[in-house]
Amino acid sequence: MYLSLLYTCISVYTFSCRDEKQFRMSTRQEEVTISSFCAPQKKFVFIKTHKTGTCTVINIFQRYALYNKLKVLMPVSQGLLSWPFPPEEADYIHMPDEKYDALMHHFVYNKTWLLTKFPSEIPYITILREPFRHLKSQMNYYHLPMLLGIEDSKDAVKNFLEDPWKYRNKSEVFFNHVNVTWDGTRNPLTFDLGWPAEKADNQEEASAYITQLDKEFTLVMILRYLDESIVLLRRLMCWEVKDVVYYSRIENRRHYPYKRYEATLEELDNHRRWSAVDYMLYDTFNKSLWRKIATQVMVLLFMLSFFSSFADTAKFLHLQ
């Protein structure tokens, strides 16, 4: 659907070889104009969701923070600022003035708390992954087949999706010390963005919550369209291309028996009903991303080509 939208946009703006030079010049001019009328964003909140490619994306934010000497709200314990528990003052390293420029660690989204640490007008950014692929990654990383009592084989996902409700009592994990329930198979993306696992069946309230998230987040990237997302990020933040070049780390390309498993339509339907809030979340922000793309498709196409060449060069240099 979205590719056809992109192709339609391309066809509308089809130009001849004679016009290509003029197009490229005007596109470059627009980039110069944008840079002239905006200042680089040096304050931001990036909510690092789980198993969504954030180990790749966070390098962009870490590098920018390092080069620009930003004051990052850092966790006391490595990696986890506030997850799966609500934020507490003892969880992070305090600055003398309690003023921070950036957040980029695992953190259960809590806008009320964040407003006590950051200005209200800064960009809020996160990234999501298609829920079925996310489930497979979750099951591998957290060893969920063992938790569910399913053989960890190529059929693990298939066996689970035949009847997810059968495993409900096994898939939920309760953290006694913070009174929080987490389910690695059911709405884990929305959990990272502040939606309680106990409200998995309350879709009406969940829909209202996602609508609110859509107002609060400036950009929600989609892993499947990472290059497009990064180009939009660059334009949103008014950063230079060099600031957003990334290298996908080979060590993160894990292999497991069911990684390539393609679910049947019935299994996908079961998963969509089981993890309905995550699908609602993903569908909302996938559409939002493509609306943003559609409004600036020609500039985006040019920048994607330029960005891809830049990234390929960076990858080559990294491997030397």
UniProtKB/TrEMBL annotation:
Keyword Glycoprotein part of the UniProt annotation: yes
Family membership noted in the UniProt record: Belongs to the galactose-3-O-sulfotransferase family.
Protein's UniProt name: GAL3ST1 protein
Membrane topology: Single-pass type II membrane protein
Gene Ontology CC terms, in alphabetical order: Golgi membrane
GO terms assigned for molecular function: galactosylceramide sulfotransferase activity
Entries under SUPFAM superfamilies matching the protein: P-loop containing nucleoside triphosphate hydrolases
A Pfam family assignment: Gal-3-0_sulfotr
GO BP terms: glycolipid biosynthetic process
Record key words, sorted: Glycoprotein, Golgi apparatus, Membrane, Signal-anchor, Transferase, Transmembrane, Transmembrane helix
Native source organism of the sequence: Branchiostoma lanceolatum (Common lancelet)
